[in-house]
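I'll show a typical protein example:
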Amino acid sequence: MTNDRREKRRFEVSLDATWDGSRGTYDARISDLSATGCYVDAINETLPGEILRLKVQISSGDWLEINGEVTHSFTSVGFGLRFVDMDSEQLAKLNALLEHLEISSKDSSSEIGS
C-alpha cells in the first residue's frame, strides 16, 4: 500500500507558465501535472489558500488558463496548486494534454524495453 494521497496519475513535465497572484504576475515552470493540480517551480512567494490564475503553454501558441488554490508553498522553490472552477473548455484542453502525455510515456517505455 502506498502513502501517496494522490488519486490521479501525475506526469513529470517541463512546461512554461506564468501566474497571476495578489502581488503580481510571474514567470514559472510546471514540473509535475495531473488532472487535479500541478507543481509550479517559482521563486516568488505564495501563501497556502491563495487563489491564482495560471497560464500554461501547452503547444505552439496555445495556452491553458486555469485557476488554482495553493496547497503548499516552499519559498524560493515552488508551490503545489489544486485546480478549481474549471469550465468545459479548460477541462477539455487539460484532458487532451494529459492524454498526449500518457501516449508519450507509453512510447518512451516501449523504446526503453526494446
About this structure: DSSP finds one helix and six strands in the chain. The helical segments are 88-113. The chain has a mean pLDDT of 87.
